[in-house]
């Protein structure tokens, strides 16, 4: 007989959901139920293997197909292990708050254990659960709090069956007083300029730091809790050392609050460290012990600068201490940065075309840090956003036209330097030649030479990796109306500080050596003219190198 016993499962068994059950019947002592099928124990719809059972008398309402008198006794047996986990996890322990602000409290705790496994945690502020989704790590930052307010926090663990632990011991935390501080600077260690929480952070290289020996690393973690792209990028770059290290920087005398950003990028609870500011202990207990991928903004830590330099020492406790970001806020004295950077110097033009001029300059300095540069031709600013480096290519210019260029530096507080010395540059005459893109499909690339993206190149691509006894570029189909001497203008990119060279051969003839001066960056296009003999009709021009070095990247050729 086939039947689905779940149709009439009593309420006490329904709690087990779709857990398999067996129906066992006992015949009426005085009548015959006439059950369809054979055997005193009909084949069940499910046949669980576990010997455990939960027995419930079912009376006569068992829903069996029968002929004659129905049985007056039936019982459901719950068997199998599904749904049988009724053991709750242990309560989390060691609840602590390594940092807090006026509106947030960071919490950490020691993991619970469970007979099957802990699925996650819930954090409670009083009786209010503060997390929307189950927390899978052992840290969490409670936000949206009121300043100068005492809160009581507890944590509970859950397993996959929904069993909930008892609450951890309560932790009472009072948020900081409302902040009246002013943002001074943020530093992205081993990273570039970024906007974090609405504030302009400096690249480490522009922050005016003096570091002891450190190593640098990047990672590709998804931070927990989730953050925006800029913050994720900052958290995935770091400085570190196997022992202690120091970070010193010039800072106007005054009182400050310092925040340190840390994510665990190697292994859970791998490292911990203390921090000293101005020679005094800033951390009351070690920081940095986190689950893999978890991050914390530690602080604020108070510091008073009296000698014009903020000294910070990172002191190893376990593992390799590291830092991803650092924020400095002023609470008095040095709060308002009114010192402008020095003017950039050494403005030069390493390359130009008929419509572009490439510029380079020597970096400015600042008491806090240079945030970027603006380039001007006359009184017109050429760049849409601040330039992080010390080179830039001005585009959209007019051929055969003289321009006067200057550069100004600015810091995070908006202070702008005086202009650099002016540089006069005249664009080349308008090209009347025929252009041949280096990356054109008709050309031949061999060895390691390859076509790569180039946002400043005329066709959006350049041919790279030519030379080093390997890569070659042959530009095919270079046309000449008649046999004779012609000028080829070669457009290229050379971000090295020194010139690069390449051998150039026309139609398989004897090569000549062409020298390519630095262009200032690998996004700056320069050009050089080479006189060659061409045949009437189609010609090939090949670039290669017979020494252990590389030629520049190639944008295009023009036959003038």
Properties at a glance:
2 helices; Immunoglobulin-like; disordered N terminus; 560 residues; mainly beta; elongated; 5-stranded antiparallel β-sheet; 4 domains; Jelly Rolls; 42 strands
Verbal overview:
It comes from Paenibacillus sacheonensis. Keywords: Carbohydrate metabolism, Disulfide bond, Glycosidase, Hydrolase, Polysaccharide degradation, Signal. Residues 75-103, 332-351 are annotated as: Disordered. This is Carbohydrate-binding protein. With 560 residues, the chain is mostly beta strands. The chain folds into 4 domains: 93-174, Immunoglobulins (Immunoglobulin-like); 181-331, Galactose-binding lectin (Jelly Rolls), CATH 2.60.120; 345-426, Immunoglobulins (Immunoglobulin-like, Sandwich); 434-559, Galactose-binding domain-like (Jelly Rolls, Sandwich). It has 2 helices and 42 strands. The strands form 11 sheets. It has a 6-stranded mixed beta sheet with strand order 12-13-11-24-18-21, with helices on one face. A hairpin with a 2-residue loop joins strand 27 (370-377) and strand 28 (380-381). The N and C termini lie far apart (95 Å).
Largest sheet: 6 strands, mixed
| Morphology | elongated
Structural class: mainly beta
pLDDT < 50 runs, ≥5 residues:
1-83
N- to C-terminal separation?
Answer: 95 Å
């Amino acid at each position: 007989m086939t039947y689905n016993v779940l149709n009439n499962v009593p309420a006490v068994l329904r709690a087990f959901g779709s857990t398999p059950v067996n129906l066992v019947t006992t015949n009426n002592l005085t009548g015959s139920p006439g059950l369809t099928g054979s055997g005193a124990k009909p084949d069940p719809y499910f046949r669980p293997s576990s010997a455990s059972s939960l027995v419930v008398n079912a009376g006569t309402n068992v829903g069996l197909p029968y002929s004659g008198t129905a049985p007056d006794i039936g019982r459901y047996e719950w068997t199998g292990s599904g749904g049988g986990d009724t053991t709750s996890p242990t309560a989390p322990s060691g609840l602590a708050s390594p940092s807090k602000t006026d509106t947030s409290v960071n919490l950490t705790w020691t993991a619970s254990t469970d007979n099957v496994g802990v699925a996650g945690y819930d954090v409670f502020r009083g009786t209010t659960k503060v997390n929307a989704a189950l927390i899978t790590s052992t840290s969490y930052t409670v936000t949206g709090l009121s300043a100068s307010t005492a809160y009581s926090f507890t944590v509970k663990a859950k397993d996959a069956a929904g069993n909930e632990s008892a609450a951890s011991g309560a932790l009472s935390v009072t948020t900081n007083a409302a902040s009246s501080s002013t943002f001074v600077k943020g530093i992205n260690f081993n990273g570039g300029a970024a906007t974090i929480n609405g504030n302009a952070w400096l690249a480490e290289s522009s922050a005016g730091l003096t570091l002891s020996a450190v190593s640098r690393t990047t990672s590709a973690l998804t931070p927990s809790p989730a953050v925006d792209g800029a913050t994720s990028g900052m958290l995935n770059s770091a400085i570190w050392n196997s022992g202690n290290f120091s970070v010193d920087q010039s800072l106007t005398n005054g009182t400050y609050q310092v925040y340190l950003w840390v994510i665990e990028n190697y292994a859970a609870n791998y490292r911990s460290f203390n921090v000293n500011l101005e020679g005094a202990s800033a951390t009351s207990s070690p920081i940095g012990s986190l689950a893999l991928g978890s991050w914390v903004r530690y602080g604020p830590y108070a510091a008073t600068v009296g000698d014009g330099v903020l000294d910070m020492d990172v002191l190893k406790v376990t593992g390799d201490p590291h830092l991803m970001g650092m924020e400095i806020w002023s609470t008095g004295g040095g709060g308002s940065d009114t010192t402008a950077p020095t003017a950039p110097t050494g403005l030069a033009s390493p390359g130009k075309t008929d419509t572009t001029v490439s510029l380079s300059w020597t970096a400015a300095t600042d008491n806090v840090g240079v945030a970027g540069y603006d380039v001007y031709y006359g009184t017109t600013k050429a760049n849409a956003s601040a330039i992080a480096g010390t080179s830039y290519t001005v585009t959209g210019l007019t051929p055969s036209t003289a321009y006067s260029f200057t550069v100004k530096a600015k810091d995070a507080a908006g202070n702008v330097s005086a202009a650099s010395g002016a540089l006069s540059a005249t664009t080349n005459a308008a090209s009347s030649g025929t252009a041949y893109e280096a990356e054109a499909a008709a050309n031949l690339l061999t060895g390691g030479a390859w076509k790569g993206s180039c946002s400043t190149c005329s066709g959006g691509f350049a041919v790279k990796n030519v030379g080093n006894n390997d890569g070659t570029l042959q530009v095919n189909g270079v046309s000449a109306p008649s046999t004779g001497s012609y000028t080829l203008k070669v457009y290229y990119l050379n971000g090295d500080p020194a010139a690069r060279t390449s051998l150039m051969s026309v139609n398989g003839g004897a090569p000549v050596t062409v020298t390519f001066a630095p262009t200032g960056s690998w996004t700056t296009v320069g050009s050089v003219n080479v006189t060659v003999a061409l045949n009437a009709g189609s010609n090939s021009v090949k670039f290669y190198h017979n020494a252990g070095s590389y030629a520049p990247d190639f944008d295009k050729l023009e036959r003038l």
